[in-house]
Task: structure prediction
Amino acid sequence: MPNAKHAQRLAIALLAAIALAACSKVETNETAAADPGHASGEHGSSSSAGLPAGRIAAGEQLANAKGKATGQSCIDCHGAEGNAPIDGTYPKLGGQYADYIAHALQAYRAGDRQHALMSPQANGLSDQDISDLAAYFGSRESKLRDLHGVH
Result:
């Protein structure tokens, strides 16, 4: 039987997942047929972050490019396809909701979210860059795990 602390964490995680799912656009056969570029995987879905459509290939190039602010690329810290962080405290990005990544990068860029490496790295990103990175990492295989068994 879960204790109250575990139940509270689970409830918060569940509400966050529901909120993220509500913000994400689910592609249907009709929307894919209406936008052949999107159906090919070249563009990400529309964003609750108010960003232009993301381009997966452009995002992959950005993820591998060294940033001017830190001299690091996304892949240098978050690992191949965002799934092998060099530090256990760094998040896995592969398979993450694209909107979540976009909102996080916007918050780092705006100064609303602070991190010694991410804040300066995100500072130089355009809206299109953020959308492209979010589309790329969101399209990768997920190595994320839920909170099952976390105490």
In short: Confidence is low (pLDDT under 50) at residues 23-45. The radius of gyration is 16 Å.
